[in-house]
Specification:
The chain is an all-alpha fold. Helices cover 72% and strands 0% of the residues. The chain has a single domain, classed as Tetracycline Repressor, domain 2. The protein has nine helices and no strands.
Length: 185
Amino acid sequence: MPNTTSPRGSSREKLLEAAGDLISLKGVHDLTLDAVAAAAGVTKGGLIYHFKTKDDLLGALVERMIEHLDQRSRAKAAKSGATKSALLLAFIDDTFDMSPSERQLLTNLLSAASSYPHLLGPVRAAFMRTYGELSDTGKDAGLALVLAVAMDGISLVELLGLHQFTKRQRDVMRKTLKELIAQVA
């Protein structure tokens, strides 16, 4: 994820990047503040300046991930006219083209939600914002919502390890979703 903060925030970004990398490799339960500080090349005191607890660090990491994914989707949609259909097409890319490292980080953060339920607050807010936006206008609001929920379902099925779709299955789902999105104004 790109660093878009001021120079003062660069230590904070390094810490979040290091925490994300460690969670991707080892999961949340093995994450320690000492390990994050060492991986970021920051003293533990420097880490505690930004994040008083592991919970604070995890909460900031989830918020950063949500913001990054949202900005990426909206930037793609803006290039195509910022319509509902453009946003849904951007969601398709995020659903089917997510990098393995992002997928692993999301999987591990999702798994952590059972021990750290406060992590779901920002995720719920993002879903509420997106679903609200898709349902606010137009005769095709129902179709837009169903398509967004379908893509979220595809992601969750894979992130939870319930099923890994084959390339052929992914291709046919992507094609069908695009055909349906063409019906959204």
